[in-house]
Amino acid sequence: MNTSPWWHGGTLYHAYVRSFQDSDGDGYGDIQGLTDRLDYLRWLGIDGLWLSPTMPSPNHDWGYDVSDYLGVHPELGTLEAMDKLISKARDRGIRVMLDLVANHTSSDHPWFVEARSSVTSAYRDYYVWAPPKADGSLPNNWVDDTGDPAWTWDEKSGEYFFHNFLPEQPDLNWWNPAVHAEFEAVMDFWFDRGISGFRIDVANGLYKDAQLRDNPRHEGAYIYGTEVQGRYGLQHLHNFNQPEVHEVYRNWRRRAEKRPETPLLLGETWVARVDELAPYYGDNDELQLAFNFPLIFAPFEAPALARIVSDSLSLFPAGASPVWAGSNHDLPRLATRWAGGDSRKARMAQTVLATLPGTFVLYYGDELGMIDSDIPPDRQRDPLTAGGKNGQWPRDNARAPMRWDRTDHAGFSTGTPWLPLPDDDRINVADQREDRLSPLTLIRSLIALRREAFAGSVAEYCVLTVSDTRWAYTSGPLTVVANFSDEPQPLSLSGEPVLSSRKIRDIPHGLTTIGPWEAVVQYTGRAGTGLAAAPEHTP
Asked: Cβ–Cβ contacts within 10 Å for residue 452, how many?
């Protein structure tokens, strides 16, 4: 019996709940909608389902401002609906993960309401407060995610409170042991209900410099979606990535491993370099997975990507699983950011990500080749980025509703979708399920290939060739050759390929050429070019 963690060699699907499936006609996706589409996700072959925030919230940041950690937002469903989703997903071999926002709460959370009621409140030290400097100026030069000062004045108490994001999202004070106890209780509540893990929002946040020292200036240009440091001219030296955060994850890992099935702790780790990312794995005793933003922010070039993969696998602790994702709800989609709308590049990119050792994360709609929408400013709904404040890219462009078919509301809703549907109605599930060469067919084939080739393990990786136009490597029994150029290249394999990002399964025997922006996969020890279908698996 394979006792490896389920995410080793597995595929995790990231569903932005409000944009996945609406069940009641209000135009917003919901938990029942997810339950209704579980058979599609089983057909796709995924192992885990990560939900964007589902907890009660005033939605100043669409759920990333939690007002109750032990509930479900009424627009999305109920606790009973969540229990049903967890149970029915488990029946189909799919584990459900929630988003845990531990860096900050909503300003409507009872903790903060009580904290700002009096400087002597028992909850005052749940948050980060500071008086003005002697000259009346702000406590320091920190800015929030919009570029505005990260300190908001509280008239009643005569102090500022700190927020890395919006003023409606006050940061918690993790120097306070009571905050630790609160989140241990929150995690236990959801684990007891059958949740299989958490994606931890702002996992490199939590602690702030105890002395609240100024952040240093950052010299040079900053390009959104390509860098972590330098935004708004500052380095985030003192308000992120503090060393004390690692003991939080060591404690959470110890607690998780006491459960019959160890839950997954997946960190949103916004760091610039792999050597900054590796410590979040600890000595294989902290997070089991940490998102690789150095790869996400890398240019779509073979040397850059190959270097980050090699560095990750060499720096992470033995037995740890890397995690590879090309898109998420905060950034332009892979098909736009890396591929520039070129379907060949998008298909090749997904083939590379899906054949690397570790865990593959697929953002909803990426299996269809969805590109970013161009939602007009008057239709944008994201309070943090709507209208491009301070030069920000509008995140709504990567959050458009899923197209299930070509009907008026795309099978997403019987009402008016909360965001405009993607313009191209050909990018839909129904049509692509019938097309043997579609992006959906490719992704399903890749997931099936991963399951068969990696079998719950973190495969051995070896670079064969890296140049400006070519990246070839082995990943367990797979040999992958990717052509990063506009010209065909000669191909020499020891056997027949089982998959091509362009042809999928219709690959001619004796293939000697790889096409422009194409990846070809050979499976050592497996005869023929057939691909296994996604199995009807159970945990």
From this structure: 16
Q: Nearest Cα to 263, choosing from 103, 95, 99?
A: 95
Q: How far apart are CA 402 and CA 440, in angstroms?
A: 13
* Nearest residue to 355 (alpha-carbon basis) of 485, 534, 519: 519
User: Rounded CA gap, 16 and 30, in Å?
Assistant: 10
Q: What angle separates helix 177-192 from helix 245-256, to the nearest 10 degrees?
A: 30
Q: Strand pairing partners for 50?
A: 14, 97
- Catalytic residue, chosen from 268, 286, 372, 396, is 268
* Catalytic option among 75, 145, 201, 286: 201
Strands 11-15 and 359-363: parallel
> Which residue has 């004390």 as its token pair?
244
Q: Per the structure block, which two tokens stand in for 464?
A: 């064969």
Tokens 């019938």 -> residue: 434
> CA Rg, the chain, in Å?
23
Q: Which residue has the tokens 């008086």?
A: 131
Catalytic residue list contains 268 = yes
User: Half-sphere exposure (CA, 13 Å, Cβ side) for 469?
Assistant: 9
CA angle (292, 94, 3) in 5-degree steps:
75
Among candidate residues 321, 334, 331, 399, the one with its CA nearest the CA of residue 360: 321
Per-residue pLDDT of the chain (539 residues; tens, 9 = 90+): 567 999 999 999 999 999 999 999 999 999 999 999 999 999 999 999 999 999 999 999 999 999 999 999 999 999 999 999 999 999 999 999 999 999 999 999 999 999 999 999 999 999 999 999 999 999 999 999 988 999 999 999 999 999 999 999 999 999 999 999 999 999 999 999 999 999 999 999 999 999 999 999 988 766 555 556 677 889 999 999 999 999 999 999 999 999 999 999 999 999 999 999 999 999 999 999 999 999 999 999 999 999 999 999 999 999 999 999 999 999 999 999 999 999 999 999 999 999 999 999 999 999 999 999 999 999 999 988 888 766 788 999 999 999 999 999 999 999 999 999 999 999 999 999 999 999 999 999 999 999 999 988 999 999 999 999 999 999 999 999 999 999 999 999 988 999 999 998 878 888 999 999 999 999 997 654 444 444 333 33
Dist CA 449 CA 445 (whole Å): 6
Whole-angstrom CA distances from 361 to 13, 25, 120, 169, 500 are 6, 29, 45, 27, 20
Sign of CA dihedral 30, 34, 37, 43: positive
Q: How far apart are CA 197 and CA 250, in angstroms?
A: 15
Burial of 376 (0-12, 13-18, 19+ CB in 10 A): exposed
Rounded Cα distance between 394 and 387, Å, is 7
Q: Which residue type occupies 447?
A: I
CA 487 to chain centre: 33
Tokens of 126: 């749940």
| Torsion angle, alpha carbons of 307, 310, 311, 317, to 10 | 170
- pTM over the 0.85 mark: yes
